[in-house]
Amino acid sequence: MAETEKDDKAVDVTKATEAAAAPHGITEVTTVDAATEDEAVAALDAEVGSGEPILQVRNLVKHFPLTQGILFKKQVGAVKAVDGISFDLYQGETLGIVGESGCGKSTVAKLLMTLESATAGEVFYKGQDITKLSGRALRAVRRNIQMVFQDPYTSLNPRMTVGDIIGEPYEIHPEAAPKGDRRRKVQELLDVVGLNPEYLNRYPHQFSGGQRQRIGIARGLALNPEIIICDEPVSALDVSVQAQVINLMEKLQDEFNLSYIFIAHDLSIVRHISDRVGVMYLGKMAEIGTDAEIYDHPTHPYTQALLSAVPVPDPEAREGRERIILTGDVPSPANPPSGCRFRTRCWKAEDKCAKEVPLLAIPERFAGTDSLAAHESACHFAEEKDVVHA
Amino acid sequence: MLNPTQAPEAGPVSAAAEAPLPGGSEITKARSLGQDAWRELRSNPIFWVSAVLLVLFLLMAAVPSLFTSTDPGHADLRNHYLGKPEWGHFFQPDWFGYNGQGQSVYARTIYGARASVIIGFCVTLGVTLVGGVIGMFAGYFGGLLDTLLSRLTDIFFGIPLLLGGMVLLQAFTHRTIWTVVLALATFGWMPLARVMRGAVITQKQADFVTAARALGAGTTRILLRHILPNTLAPVIVVATIALGGFVSTEATLSYLGIGLQSTVSWGVDISDAQNVLRDAPHVLLVPASFLSLTVLSFILLGDAVRDAFDPKLR
Ligand SMILES: Nc1ncnc2c1ncn2[C@@H]1O[C@H](COP(=O)(O)OP(=O)(O)O)[C@@H](O)[C@H]1O
Ligand code: SF4
Ligand SMILES: [Mg+2]
């Protein structure tokens, strides 16, 4: 176990140096104004250089209205599932998004997939705001951004064969593969995700959870997308199978030059796969940075609390370490606390926290330093606290 | 804790080893949910009892001459009520005795199956189509359309099937099988609409529907390819059970004298027999038993199918 820890570190260092090249904070959006649909589609299908921002999310908001009454519905409030989130996804990277259940991760995923309409904010994909696209341009986005779902038991239609499930993308986008080619393509995809290509005629319920998730991944790959949004893709799987699926996803990332948004409710799962990590709390981004910044130099109290709960295999490290136990429940997103959303559970909360909303920015005290603590954190009193190695 | 570095490299071999597929060596052997349900059904004795009875009833309806060569309309007044059942005379005209006109009760019961079966199936087909479409639109599109259609369903639910059927049939002076079908279907579609609406709402939220939308699938594809096939099981179950109810309501309407006219039917025969219940109970009991058995068979079949399709009971 100790050895693997070391391995992990080695990986982290390379990632940190790679990511250091990436600009910190929010990048400038170069919008593309396509006059015609053809131009829009062409721009959406254009290549993006490795390390360039491919997806730029700006002030994304999703409020689900709470209504009352049967015949005449009247709005009595809103669940603020996502409340002003901005981040970038660079080509070829994996951005982990972590947060407790109910903090809005799946809603972010659905907004990025344009499966839900945003209340406000923009999602720029190659410079075009996909929340405003329609018609052929939206179809082009759908080809290029795909999703892998959390529950492999509900994400495959039980009435369709595996061949039909993986082949459906070609039926919806006939231009992606000529009819005669499809069966062969589906078999190739099965092979790529490590399943027997002869399983084509089987039904999903004949497979185990891990195998089903592979089928879901194959479906996501069919249209040769650039971005795959993975909403807790391994949370429903046995621990022994989780690692296999994550390894497969890493292999596919290299093979197909994919960018991932990898959602999880647990920091330990994303650590291995992600280059950068964003921590969400109650519809807002609390802290975002590279792997090394978040795991070794967290400055937001919420991240620190989450990290202190991650089990540490080394007994010596465990002894000296302080476990931060969060008290109280996560407040309702329909009625979030004023100021900092974390203040009801934060041990550092002061008056200022209730009055002023902390912005997601590099804390002043670290700005300009080359410390790894100099990354964006939405806290008035951001500071380092070595929770992992104390 | 997750430890990917130690996990074996995922590949075809480890994937196959992850969980050996049931079904053994024959790799391409596919088993759909329907096939699994069929395996389940096959081992259920209740299914077999109800299925055999239903096949018999269907045969009676389709080719009554297989069972008797007697004309159900042939009246011989010499047998007027006097011909008591001869329980030993299997398949003979006097097996179940004679009725007031001296007609063979056995022959009439055999020929009476046709009206019940036609009405039962046609009404069920009608309500499945009407209720299914209403429920599907209400469930899938939601919003105002759902509110309107659901209230309409509630209003119709407030009218008892029998009462509604009676009132509507009063308007027809000449009533055929098709008038009765129309009347029953008009007031019988609501359970189907409800079960369809519920099933569509459940399936609409399923991840595989979201996945199809994420791929850019249109409404038609989502409804026909993803949602409808997954709502069939509960709809078939409710329809099968409802079929039994329609058969008995038809008989009740005929019994009350506002159902079928001048057709050989269990309901008409039961109605005619009511005055002689004490002297010749067989004239009433025989068609009534056939009626109950038919209704019971459909309800049992519906139950068995529901159990077979319910994975939680496996
Ligand atoms: N369609 C919806 N209607 C109303 N509320 C919703 C809907 N989807 C999600 N929510 C609410 O939004 C919040 C965030 O949900 P979700 O994004 O699923 O969180 P997570 O994926 O992080 O667990 C939750 O409080 C949830 O109840
Ligand atoms: S802003 Fe205040 S309440 Fe919020 S995390 Fe920082 S210290 Fe805690
Ligand atoms: Mg979720």
From TrEMBL, chain B:
Keywords in alphabetical order: Cell membrane, Membrane, Transmembrane, Transmembrane helix, Transport
Bilayer disposition of the protein: Multi-pass membrane protein
Protein's UniProt keywords contain Isomerase: no
A Pfam family matched in the record: BPD_transp_1
Annotated GO CC locations: plasma membrane
Transmembrane segments: 46-67, 117-140, 152-171, 177-195, 227-247, 284-305
Biological processes annotated in GO: transmembrane transport
Superkingdom classification of source: Bacteria
InterPro entries cross-referenced by the UniProt entry: BP-dependent_transpt_permease, MetI-like, MetI-like_sf, OppC_N
Name listed for the protein in its UniProt record: Oligopeptide ABC transporter, permease OppC
Species name: Streptomyces himastatinicus ATCC 53653
